[in-house]
Amino acid sequence: MADPQASPPQGARKGAQYAGLSVAITTPFSGDQVDYDRLREQIEFQIDAGTTCIVPAGTTGESPTLSHDEHDRLITEVVQCVAGRVKVMAGTGSNSTAEALRLTKRAADEGIDATLQVAPYYNKPTQEGLFQHFKAIAEHVDIPVCVYNIPGRTAKEIDVETIQRLSDVPGIAMVKEATGKLDQCSAILGSTDLTVLSGDDSLTLPMISVGAEGVISVVGNVAPGPMLEMVNAALAGDFATAQQIHHRMYKLCSSMLGLATNPIPIKAAMQMVGRDSGQLRLPMTPLDESQADQLREVLFAFGLQESMAVAGR
């Protein structure tokens, strides 16, 4: 097992090609169907903004509500629309190792560049079970694996020691770190050669300051430009500029987490600024009137009033 106090590895990290801004895109729904025309519009918006990587079928994409056929087709449509212009890291995880393998193998065959693998949820495996789960995925596909650590969703945290073990598994290249703990990020970066990507928009700059290389963003669905500018400035060592943007974006980022469960607020925000991603699927329900008013105020204060005015016409 790696020494948690060891010096950071020298040279490029395994997943360095995923540095920058990745956006966890929403899944647009129309009635009870996925709206693929709107999906393509969202992708083009992200590519035009300079986004590094598109991440479909994650939590933000309401993946728990997608049927297996929808999940498969969604990823195929994203890969075909992107057509190699940016990277695609698809959410293909599950709390069943066999199901995660099926989803991942199929998506890899379709041409995704990397897979985002959430920690198995609900069944709460041991740390050994978590290790064996991710190891099995990595051993059966020939694409980089990003381990997604989000105990607030899964009820089980992946310990630093387990991530250290996983760093020795070929194919495991990245961690999406969403524990909310900067110490955890520092420990991973200090003892492995994995690329760490922030899983919390509001913590992206602090995490980059200790060695993370980017973010898988929710707010990027409505404001990819400022988020990309902040990330690029921080990665270039211009922390004065990055700090200015961070403080400007902080309330927007924190409101997206604080008003209601993701993706409820981001879908509401997209509708407000004219990038409607359709309704939510149960059990997700819309913001109430008070929450919607709060979100409008935050969007207006951030400077999206022009987009909101156009959307309201």
Structure at a glance:
This protein is α/β, with parallel strands linked by helices and 313 residues long. The relative contact order is 0.14. It comes from Rubripirellula obstinata.
Overall description:
The protein has 313 residues and is of the alpha/beta class. The chain is built from 13 helices and ten strands. The chain has a domain at 16-222: Aldolase class I (TIM Barrel), CATH 3.20.20. A hairpin with a 2-residue loop joins strand 2 (29-30) and strand 3. Helix 1 (36-49) packs across helix 2 and helix 11 (264-272) packs across helix 12 (289-302). It is globular, with a radius of gyration of 18 Å. The relative contact order is 0.14.
For the biggest sheet, the summary is: 8 strands, parallel, barrel
How large is the share of residues in beta strands?
A: 5-15%
Low-confidence stretches: 1-6
Structural class, from helix and strand content? alpha/beta
Count of runs of 4 or more consecutive helical residues? 13
- The average pLDDT score comes to 94
Radius of gyration: 18 Å
Estimate percent helicity.
40-55%
Order of helical and strand elements = EEEHEHEHEHEHHEHEHEHHHHH
Give the class-level CATH name of the domain at 16-222.
Alpha Beta
Fourth CATH level, the homologous superfamily of the domain at 16-222 = Aldolase class I
Query: Tally of extended strands?
Result: 10
Distance between the termini: 60 Å
Indicate the overall shape. Answer: globular
Q: State the CATH topology of the domain at 16-222.
A: TIM Barrel
- Read across the widest sheet, the strand sequence of neighbours is 1-4-5-6-7-8-9-10
CATH architecture of the domain at 16-222: Alpha-Beta Barrel
